[in-house]
Amino acid sequence: MFEYVIRRLLLIIPTFLGTTFLVFFILQVAPDGPFDRAVRQLKEADMGSEGNSSGNVTSSQQLTPELLNELRMQYGLDKPIIVRYLIWLGLYSKEQKNKIISLNSPFRDSFDFVKIGEYKKLLLQKYIQVVEDHNGLHVIESGAGLEFPIPSDSTLRKQFTIDKNTSHNLSLYRKNYKELPQNPNFIKTWYKSDWEINKINKEKNTISLSKKSYQGILTGYLGYSEKRGKEVSTLISERLHISIIFGLSGWILSYLVCIPLGIIKALKHGSRFDILSSSLVFIGYSIPGYALGILLLYYWGGEYFPIHGWRSDNWIELTFLQKIIDQIHHAFLPVLCYMVGSFATLTVLMKNSLLENLSQDYVRTAFAKGLTEKRVIVFHAVRNSLIPLATGIGSMIGLFLAGSYLIESVFGIDGVGFLAFKALLDRDYNIIMGNLVLFTMIRLFGNLISDLAYALIDPRIRFK
């Protein structure tokens, strides 16, 4: 068993790579991507500024070949697709930062204000310099420190008036402290930097530097969403528990209802109950889950069930029992829509499988040995009838746990499904690929669970 699990895990790798590369390739060659949209926005802005006769709108940056090259570099289109895919995986180094500095001249690196209390104090910063010796060019970097001393709150109030609603910039500090000596605690130690030299412009005496790192899926980095201003892993983790609650609830309830219903239908095959329940099951199967959700909200939403969200706004104020009732109240309709798609499949599959097993020789032999009908059906026929259902556990887990785009959008549930749906509309490729990784891994591991459940139910199956 252990060896089989290892082999299946090894087979997951090529399947994962093939699936993700196919989607990655389609997204890269598909029209109207992020690069095309950025170019179109620049063109529209340029046309708008040219057509403005009042002169109040400043002219936008012209769409020159240099600017197009910079945009291609920004979106990674200056590299082949296979290299971009390797960067996304984390197997190829990616340029995180770029700078252009002068040779043998210290360059002050990016800085940020140190915020203490309610006032923005001074900034931390460091210097980068390219030096040349008999061994060639080297990039060195200073330690981070303070270029100006941080005054106390009392000193700050004496020097100038503070407006709490105004963000004071660096020029304000330079104006008040330009005559003060440099902070003796400033770290002047220089060391070898991890910045790399890309290009040297001898005419302008400048050097282009870049900082590279291996950052991708294999390192746990799913990307960054520029539109939402957050890491993709953060966006998914904030919503994953929502989809898991609805998905697991729908998955467990589907099996708890469909298996007994299929058994009863098989035992009462051809009866009025069997015909009536089959009609209702197939009517529900013919209605898409999102369409059923709209119908349920139209008749029951607002008056009997909430029409939006997955919890009440005052969730924190509720007691434990009230939270359970509130969660069930919000989850009832969405979970019903989750179940309706698989309800008919599981029920009919269980019924037909049990009917087939009841006609087998081992069942007649069990009756001939004097076993009771309940024991023969429950411990022999039903167990073998569960084998077809076990083979579909993996796909069912993936379907429920990955979340439904349309069902979550209908009920206003901000889960991973709705996140992926919005990412498709916004062409946010990082979120799309991040969700693809999650959905693919769920489906692949779900198939492994199907095999293990198959071996658990059928004693004749042994993985060797």
Can you characterise this structure?
With about 475 residues, this protein is an alpha+beta fold. The chain has two domains: about 120 residues, no CATH class; about 230 residues, MetI-like fold. The strands form four sheets. A four-stranded antiparallel sheet has the order 2-5-6-8, with no helix packed on it. It has a three-stranded antiparallel sheet with strand order 1-10-9, with no helix packed on it. Helix 10 crosses helix 12 and helix 14 packs antiparallel against helix 17.
Number of domains: 2
Q: Oligomer, anyone?
A: single chain
Question: Into which percentage range does the β-strand content fall?
Answer: 5-15%
Number of DSSP-assigned strands: 12
Tell me the span between the first and last alpha carbons: 6 Å
Q: Quote the average pLDDT.
A: 76
Can you summarize the main beta sheet?
Answer: 4 strands, antiparallel
SS-based structural class? alpha+beta
CATH topology of the largest domain: MetI-like fold
Order of helices and strands: HHHHEEEEEEEHHEEEEEHHHHHHHHHHH
Number of helix segments?
17
Measured as a percent range, the helix fraction is 55-70%
Morphology? elongated
Please state the CA-atom Rg, rounded to the nearest Å. 32 Å
Top-tier CATH class of the largest domain = Mainly Alpha
CATH architecture of the largest domain: Orthogonal Bundle
CATH superfamily of the largest domain: MetI-like
Low-confidence stretches: 53-60, 114-122, 148-188
